[in-house]
Specification:
about 160 residues; mainly alpha; 2 domains; about 65% helix; RNA binding; RBD_domain_sf; Nucleotide-bd_a/b_plait_sf; RRM domain-containing protein; RRM_dom
Length: about 160
Amino acid sequence: MQKLLNICLRQLERISVKITSKNGKSLGYGFIEMADVESAQRAHLQVRSKSRDCFYWVHLCGDASDQSELVSVGYVGMCAITCSTAGGQSEEQDWEIYWGLFRISQFLKKLHLGRNYAGQPSFQPLPVLVQRSQEQIEEEGGNEEVDSQQINIEYCLRIWNTK
């Protein structure tokens, strides 16, 4: 698992955004003293997206103790925030919302049923972690958001399937 975390950290370190001032002059690369608000926002979204990807891979490849650690650091709450669009709290990107819902459902499903797949560490059902994860979703106000986003996505999928 440490090897996977090191790979994730290297990915995050490689993220750099070209920063330009209002007059178009290049200010270099990096996160320090961003002069361009849009560059800062893009960098912020990119780091958040890559962080979620790393946590997702830990979920996919991790054993029971890794799943417990994900619950401890608030992985499901983070995914619920991704789905939240109320009051401009988060990015309103359909793809991010879809993946947030997908990650929540897969994580809860694996915790509820356990996992016994070839090539991945197996573990028994972890009902205590399911309960703690559901509490995280509630704490983030995610129940209503997740429900409304599921309805929106179903509506969009029906429209897309008719084209």
